[in-house]
Design goal:
Elements: E1 5-11, H1 15-24, E2 31-34, E3 51-52, H2 63-82, E4 86-87, E5 91-95, H3 101-114, E6 120-123, H4 124-130, E7 140-144, E8 148-150, H5 152-165, E9 169-171, E10 178-181, E11 186-189, E12 194-202, H6 208-215, E13 223-232, E14 243-246, E15 256-259, E16 265-268, E17 272-273, H7 284-294, E18 306-316, E19 322-327, E20 330-334, H8 340-359, H9 382-391, E21 398-400, E22 405-406, H10 407-415, H11 423-430, H12 443-454
Helix pairs in contact: 1-5, 1-8, 2-8, 10-11, 10-12
């Protein structure tokens, strides 16, 4: 036993769990977030479209619609407080057949009823003035100026760091293997310890059904819905300024073409229901489908500029978000698929309010919402960068040439709150390894820095928290 009785333990270190942790940190109490992997943002939150949806797609009257619109409205202020990149670039929903104009109008009306601001339906000519590279197939578009793009890594890590700085304890490599009800609340059995808490918040992504089913009589079944993506080089990031969705038809929902907040171009996702909750492989069929469908939206899909492909899983549960006290002092934030990233700030408030009212928690007087991100030397003026290097010379040593990431940024990622311990942890905090060569050149140097700063042998440095070691021994001399 730990001896500590927590007021609430959050299970899951994705964007939803981290948002809830930050909002609970506004209250007096002992809070802990447990995550089965080595870091935050290692599951669903690490691989998605990075879109802050406007809120026109969700059905009227659902929690999904309410949380999406509220989360969208909050995102600008949240990004400012957490010092992360966010841009309201706007979005189009493209219509390819005049017979479907009625469906486009329905989507417009649904958005208006959800409270989405400034929606417009554009003719082909009006749309082309804003997006000249639209394909010849486009006949009209729904325009949502409030849609945005964000970095899901930065949002999740920023929320988690701010929560930790405000007193929330984080425990990594701590799976919830078993949960039992007690007189005081719940007991959670992990690999190497037992944790006791008055309340549990279930934010375990695609595993949230397993956590729910340990406690609740009514059983849930989450289906992992795999989405495959293609990421293109920054040199083609200006093909479109806005996110280009496709109007759902009898052929499916289509895919998006969108700039990213860092200047790349992203295409995808597919939508395939699978059984494997770790099934994040990509397939030729899936990626071919992404390319084929993207060609409906833009004139020339820049396939030759692809630098990587990846896939992510959505926690599909076939109905609305579940944000509820599903058992006594057991709170679900489950079935959070798209638009979960957009909804995260609002879900954080919603669940924290439920927990705080049930436990009669008082608000803190000293909560600090401000978190300072990692300084990116390449974004500074020449004068600012020179002054920074004079003060801290490590910022003058470039480690990742593709993204111009310095040793100073990598050191900051390691030594700050909830610091990185793996190559993927460094990548998500700094973008080292996310450029054109996809870590081909910088990985050895990043490994050396991690080894030195964490005082670990080089062959103990991992890509992520699994058995993903990159150095497995020493070669023979002379070879």
């Amino acid at each position: 036993m730990t001896g500590m009785l927590y007021d609430a333990i959050i299970i899951g270190g994705g964007v939803i769990g981290s948002a809830i942790a930050r909002e609970l940190a506004r209250f007096e109490g002992n809070f802990c977030l447990i995550e089965k992997n080595e870091d935050v943002c290692t599951g669903t939150s690490k691989a998605n479209s990075a879109i802050v949806h406007a809120g026109f797609d969700a059905k009227n009257g659902t929690l999904m619609a309410e949380m999406n619109v509220k989360g969208n409205e909050m995102m600008g202020e949240v990004a400012k407080e957490l010092d992360i990149p966010f841009k309201r670039n706007g979005a189009f929903v493209l219509c390819f057949d005049k017979k479907d104009l009625g469906s486009l109008q329905e989507l417009y009306e649904r958005g208006i009823n959800n409270g989405v601001k400034d929606l417009q339906i554009l003719t082909r000519e009006e749309a082309l003035k804003l997006e000249p590279n639209l394909s010849d197939l486009v006949v009209a578009a729904l325009y949502a100026p409030t849609s945005g793009i964000i970095c899901p890594f930065a949002l999740t890590i920023g929320l988690a760091e701010n929560a930790a700085d405000n007193g929330v304890e984080f425990k990594f490599n701590t799976p919830a293997n078993k949960i039992e009800k007690t007189d005081f609340g719940y007991r959670i059995y992990s690999d190497n310890e037992v944790l006791e808490t008055k309340a549990i918040v279930n934010a375990a992504g695609v595993y949230a059904d397993e956590i729910h089913n340990m406690v609740c009589e009514d059983k849930l079944k989450i289906v992992p819905r795999k989405g495959e993506y293609i990421l293109c080089d920054k040199k083609v990031g200006n093909i479109c300024e806005r996110t280009l969705f496709q109007l759902p038809t009898k052929l499916g929902k289509g895919i998006l073409v969108s700039p990213t907040v860092h200047g790349n171009l992203i295409l995808g996702p597919t939508a395939t229901d699978i059984e494997d909750k770790e099934g994040i492989d990509t397939t030729k069929e899936g990626l071919d489908s992404v390319i084929e469908k993207a060609s409906l939206s833009v004139k020339s899909v820049p396939v030759r500029s692809a630098i990587t492909s990846f896939s992510g899983l959505r926690a599909h549960i076939n109905h609305d978000f579940i944000l509820a006290e599903s058992a006594d002092n057991f709170f679900d934030a489950t079935g959070i698929e798209s638009p979960g990233l957009s909804s995260a700030p609002a879900i954080g408030i919603h669940i924290a309010d439920m927990v705080s009212k049930k436990l009669a928690l008082n608000k803190k007087d000293n909560f600090n919402p401000i978190r300072k991100g990692i300084i990116h030397a390449s974004e500074l003026s020449n004068e600012e960068r020179a002054a920074l290097i004079e003060k801290e010379p490590a910022y003058g040593q470039i480690i990742c040439r593709c993204e111009m990431i310095s040793e100073g940024e990598i050191l900051s990622a390691i030594h700050r709150t909830l610091g990185a311990t793996t190559l993927d942890g460094i990548k998500r905090r700094t973008r080292a390894g996310m450029g054109r060569c996809q870590a081909g050149f910088c990985s050895p140097k990043v490994m050396e820095i991690l080894s030195r700063e964490l005082n670990l042998p080089l062959d103990e440095i991992k890509k992520n928290g699994s058995e993903s070691k990159l150095a497995v021994g020493k070669s023979n001399k002379g070879i």
